[in-house]
Amino acid sequence: MIIPEDVQTSSEDLVDDQSYHFMSLMLNLVNTFLYMVNTYIIVPTADDYSVSLGAAATVCGVIIGSMAVAQVFSSVYFSAWSNRSYFRPLVFSSIMLFSGNVLYALAYDLNSLTVLILGRLLCGLGSARAVNRRYISDCVPLKIRLKASAGFVSASALGMACGPALAGLLQTEFKIYAVTFNQNTLPGWIMSLAWVGNLIWLWISFKEPDHFAKENAVNTQSSDSGHGRNDNLEGGLAQPLLTEAKERQGENADNNENDPKESHKAATSIAAAYRLLTPSVKVQLLIYFMLKFAMEILLSESSVVTTFYFNWSTSTVAIFLAVLGLTVLPVNVIVGSYITNLFQDRQILVASEIMVLIGIASSFHFGSSYCVAQYVVSALITFVFAEVLEGVNLSLLSRVMSSRLSRGTYNGGLLSTEAGTLARVAADMTITTAGYLGQSQLLNATLLPSLVICVASIAATFGTYNTLY
C-alpha cells in the first residue's frame, strides 16, 4: 500500500499541472542558451587574444578550458542548492557570469592573462546547467517533459551555433575613453549586457515552485504532531524486527533492496553514488566522456589548426563552427523521428561510436599536404555522430541507472554533467600541452588520445552490450 517515491500518482500530476509556470521554464532555457553562447563565443578569437597578451596561441586551450574547470565544482553546489531553491541559484549564476565577462573584456587593456583566466573561471562558477536540468525533471508536468527536454537540447545546440556566429560579426575596433572594443573584448562586453538583461527578466518573471513551501509545511506539521507517537511505535515494534533482520542478514544479501526506505534513499556523497553504478552505467559514462572529449578537441583547436593549415580568417572559422552547431537540430529530428523507430538504442549507440572513430581517424594529417575537404568532412562526421551518440547515450543512461540516483544532490544528472565537464577540461589541457610540440604536430598529438579513448569505449560497449536495454 506504500507508493514508492519514483512512482508518480495522478494527484501529483494534477499538482504539477497547477504549479507549472511556463515563464520560469523559459528562463531556464534562456539561461542554458546564453551559457552555451558564452562558452563558444570566444573560440574563434581565443588564440588571437592569448597572442595579444604575450602568450602562445595554444594557450587558448587554457582560456577555453578554465571555464570547464570551474564548472566541475559549481555543478556540485548548484545541484545541492537546487534542493532548496531554483530562483536564488539562477540569480547567482547571472551575477557571476556578468562579473566574469567584464573581467574577460578588461583583460585586454590591463594586458593581463591572469585577469583573462580569472574572468573565465568566474563564468564557470556561474554554470547553472545542473539547475536547468533539474528544473525540467522536477517542475515540469510529465506530459510535456519530453518537449521541455527537447527544448533544453535545442537551446544548447542553438547556443553552440550562435556563439561562434556572433563572434564572426564582431570584427571591428574602437575605443571609448581608455576602454578598447575589438574582436577580442567585444564578446565579453556583449555577454555581460546579455546577463544583465537576463537578471532583470529573472527578477521580474521567475516564480519559485510551490513544492518547496509545501514540503516545509508538511515537515513542520509532521514534527509537531507525529513525533512522539512514531517514537513510541518504533520503540515497541521496530526493535524485535530489527533484531530478527540482523540474524537473517547473512542469509539474505539483498536485505536492503527489500526495504522500501533503503531502496529509495538518495546517495549522500560522490563515493556513495559511485557504488550505485553498475558496469553498464560506467560504460555509458565512459562513452559520454569520450564524445565530449572528441567534440571539445575539434571545437577548441579549430581556430589554431585552420589558421596554420588553411590560413582561415576569424570570420571563416566562425562560419565553420556555426554550421557545425546548426547540424544538431536536423540530425536530432531525423534520429528522434525515424532512426529510433527502426533500430534499438544500443544498435544506434554502437554504429555512432564506430562513425565517430572513422571521423577521428580520417582527421589525422598524413603526408606533406592537408586539404580543406579532408578536415571539413572528417569534422562533420565526428561532430554529427557525436551528437547522435550523446542523445542515445543519455537515453540509455536514464534506463540503466539506479532510481536512487534520480534524487538528491548526487544524482545521475550531476554525474553525467561532471563526466562531460571533466572531458572538456582534459581536452583543453591536452591542446595546451600538445602546443609545446609545435603547431605542426598539434593536430595529430590531440587526435591520438581521442582515438584511444574511442577504441576503449567501443570495446567496453561490446562487453556490456547485452545489458543495454
TrEMBL record:
Molecular function per GO: transmembrane transporter activity
Record field: transmembrane: 20-43, 55-78, 90-107, 144-166, 186-204, 285-310, 316-336, 348-366, 372-397, 442-465
Keywords: Membrane, Transmembrane, Transmembrane helix
Topological type in the membrane: Multi-pass membrane protein
Subcellular location: Membrane
Cytoplasm listed as a keyword: no
Presence of the UniProt keyword Transmembrane helix in the record: yes
GO cellular component, one term: membrane
Primary subcellular site in the record, as a coarse category: membrane
PANTHER family listed in its UniProt record: INNER MEMBRANE TRANSPORT PROTEIN YAJR, SPX DOMAIN-CONTAINING MEMBRANE PROTEIN OS02G45520
Protein name: SPX domain-containing protein
UniProt source species: Aegilops tauschii subsp. strangulata (Goatgrass)
